[in-house]
Amino acid sequence: MHLTYELKREVLNNVHDVAGTWQFEGGEMLENQKIVGHYAAERRIVFKATEAQNIAMLRMTVFFLDKEPPENITLEGVHDFNSGSEMGSVSAASRGFSTHIGKQFQRTGDTLTIG
Predict the structure, then answer these.
(1) Distance (Å, whole) CA 75 – CA 58
(2) Strands 3-17 and 20-31, how do they pair?
(3) What is this structure's pTM?
(4) CB neighbour list of residue 32: distance below 8 Å, 6 or more residues apart
(5) Which entry of 43, 71, 76, 110 is 20 to 30 Å from 24 by CA?
């Protein structure tokens, strides 16, 4: 079973510190134009020697509303700054979504597809 959501970004911050360059993004997650949760993404820019590549390591967690107990899915993969696309796999999930662990995900534009 595929899960498909629209991500509506509300925050995007770039941070440069001694550990490197980071990008943090967050916002709402919609299904059929209804808010079903929120997401938070962290990107760590990858450097090759002294030159930045156009990719970043990605960790994103989606948090579902109105679930008791609270439910979430954590995704890990890469972000391509040239295309804006993201891909990887589900690294962790709460019990209600545990069957998705290990499945692939892809984000193209504002659309996130898991499975």
Answers:
(1) 8
(2) antiparallel
(3) 0.89
(4) none
(5) 71
